[in-house]
Design goal:
Layout lengths: L2 H14 L3 H9 L5 H8 L7 E3 L15 E8 L2 E8 L10 H17 L3 E5 L9 H4 L6 H11 L5 E5 L2 E3 L4 H4 L3 E5 L4 E3 L3 H8 L5 H5 L1 H8 L4 E3 L2 H12 L24 H4 L10 H8 L6 E3 L7 E8 L2 E8 L10 H16 L4 E7 L6 H6 L1 H14 L4 E10 L2 H4 L9 E4 L4 E3 L3 H15 L2 H18 L2 H6 L5 E2 L5 H11 L18
Parallel strand pairs: 3-4, 4-5, 5-7, 6-8, 7-9, 12-13, 13-14, 14-15, 14-16, 15-17
Antiparallel strand pairs: 1-2, 2-3, 10-11, 11-12
Helix pairs in contact: 4-6, 14-16, 18-19
Length: 509
């Protein structure tokens, strides 16, 4: 081997090792070294084309400037990857770190392939701020590029450790954020900074920990128990995504649904009784295909990816077991982003409706329930992918609009025999319309009068009457719902995905 070759191999080996003295610290914290993470992520036996490995190679303290960037193969297709090396200055961003991230994003845009961010970084280095912060191709360009890539190629962030201050917006601008419980953190100001600025004493976990963000703030989409699990979840999520918006997700062989009670047994006719919507989902989708997003956040709405006869679908479902399935501020946001995500990447949508409408009261009005609800209505209106509204039981008020009722151009509005569509349920409706009359009656006659009016109201919103008026496209027994959806999805494959031309909508945020 020549001296030149020997130098190349020695330099490469030194850089790829990161800072060995900090590797033990990573192991003690239950975290993997960056290149071990990449081995788990990339398909076995495939090459990783790493670029800019020798950035700042003349500076021993900053091998590769703390970030690995390149193109690899995940699930049999090319992806662009940036991955922080926490052994190099705690993964912080230096001059070449930022430039490498910007360059790999540009490559993802050129190649039209997914962009993966493996984040474990202490933020920007203040000592290099003039070289990383204010300029045209400095850190701000990373966020600019994320927005340019949004809806063009899938963007996934696996958050293994911290992502503080300005760098917190890197995860926030991706499609999906997977956070490692007890390790990942996301915050604008550290506990020390918070105490100095506003006098509040807090802990890192309470301020910006993974569990908090996956349950309270909604900044995290999926909570993982370890680095290894987080990587497997990212690989699984990508299997539901196309390579870019120009394609459709890959289909797989159909699998029968999970065995259990039939939908007819699960869903009661009594509107006041709850049931578990997860059971309904299990009877519809291919067994083992469920990938839930934001499971721990705003549980009154369920959103997730699944396969129906091998084809990828997105499911938006009310959960009557949580807050009666009523739409709240957070659940509206949760559903809106998921709908936008599905529409961006050609994933058909199935709405499973059992909703009393949007929550009422001074608390939610002050929180902006109208503004947040409008976001979900906007997303549903904007979706041009095949979309199906299933009235599982009740669909009242503006809940019908948010859940893709007939006015929102679903490819079909289907109803189970238990279904009802109305401005509100019989009890509040009778009370609202006939309150004065009820109060005028002798107390002994009120109950019979109220029952009569409720029965009349229920008859007026009976699903067969609605079907006779062509307000729903079909009534389907629960036992036939899966087959009906499979058939209609097949017919909808040729649907034209067009939306009236504009620069952008004005989003109700």
């Amino acid at each position: 081997m020549s001296a030149g070759e020997q130098r190349y191999h020695d330099e490469r080996a030194r850089i790829e090792e990161g800072h060995v003295k900090y590797r033990e610290k990573l192991r003690a914290e239950g975290k993997l070294f960056v290149r071990d993470r990449l081995k788990l992520l990339l398909d076995p036996g495939t090459d990783f084309q790493e670029d800019w490995l020798f950035a700042r190679h003349q500076e021993p303290e900053t091998p590769a400037d703390g970030v690995v960037a390149g193109v690899g193969t995940v699930g049999g297709r090319a992806v662009c990857i940036m991955a922080n090396d926490y052994t190099v200055k705690a993964g912080s961003w230096g001059e070449k770190t930022v430039l490498k991230i910007v360059r790999i994003q540009e490559k993802a845009a050129r190649l039209q392939v997914p962009m993966l961010y493996l984040v474990d970084a202490a933020g920007g280095r203040i000592s290099e701020q003039i070289k990383i912060f204010p300029g045209r191709f400095h850190a701000g360009r990373i966020f600019y590029n994320e927005v340019q890539l949004s809806g063009v190629v899938p963007q996934v962030c696996i958050l293994f450790g911290p992502s503080p201050a300005g760098s917190a917006y890197l995860p926030a601008l991706t499609d999906l954020v997977i956070m490692v419980d007890g390790k990942a953190s996301l915050y604008v100001g550290s506990p020390r900074m918070v105490e100095m600025a506003i006098g509040e004493k807090t802990t890192l976990e309470d301020l910006g920990g993974a569990r908090m963000h996956c349950t309270v703030s909604g900044c995290g989409d999926v909570l993982a128990g370890s680095d290894e699990e987080a990587i497997e979840l990212a690989k699984r999520y990508l299997s539901y995504m196309p390579t870019s918006f120009r394609e459709v997700p890959a289909a797989r062989e159909a699998v029968e649904p999970k065995p259990g009670r039939s939908i007819d047994e699960i869903v009661p006719y009594d509107q006041r009784k709850y049931f578990d919507m997860y059971e309904v989902i299990d009877r519809i989708i291919d067994a083992g295909s469920w990938f839930e997003v934001k499971k721990l956040f705003a549980g009154e709405v369920i959103v997730g990816f699944a396969r129906l006869a091998g084809r990828v679908v997105g499911i938006v479902a009310n959960q009557p077991k949580v807050k009666g399935g009523v739409l709240m501020v957070d659940s509206s946001d949760k559903a809106a982003k998921f709908i936008w995500l599905c529409n961006a990447f050609n994933v058909p949508l199935i709405y499973l409706s059992d909703v009393a409408g949007f929550m009422v009261g001074s608390k939610v009005e002050r929180e902006g329930i109208i503004r947040h609800g409008a976001k979900m209505v906007f997303a549903t209106s904007q979706a041009t992918v095949p979309k199906f509204c299933v009235i599982v039981r009740k669909c009242y008020g503006a809940g019908l609009y948010a859940m893709c009722g007939p006015a929102f151009e679903p490819d079909a509005t289907l109803a189970l025999p238990q279904g009802q569509i109305a401005i509100m349920g019989p009890e509040p409706a009778v009370n609202a319309v006939y309150y004065n009359k009820i109060m005028e009656l002798p107390e002994s006659e009120r109950a019979a009068y109220v029952k009569q009016k409720r029965d009349e109201y229920a008859e007026d919103v009976d699903i067969y009457k609605l079907a006779s008026e062509m307000l729903v496209d079909g009534i389907v027994p629960g036992s036939g719902l899966r087959d009906e959806l499979i058939k209609r999805l097949g017919y909808a494959r040729s649907k034209a995905h067009d939306f009236p031309q504009r620069r952008n909508g004005v989003y109700p945020v």
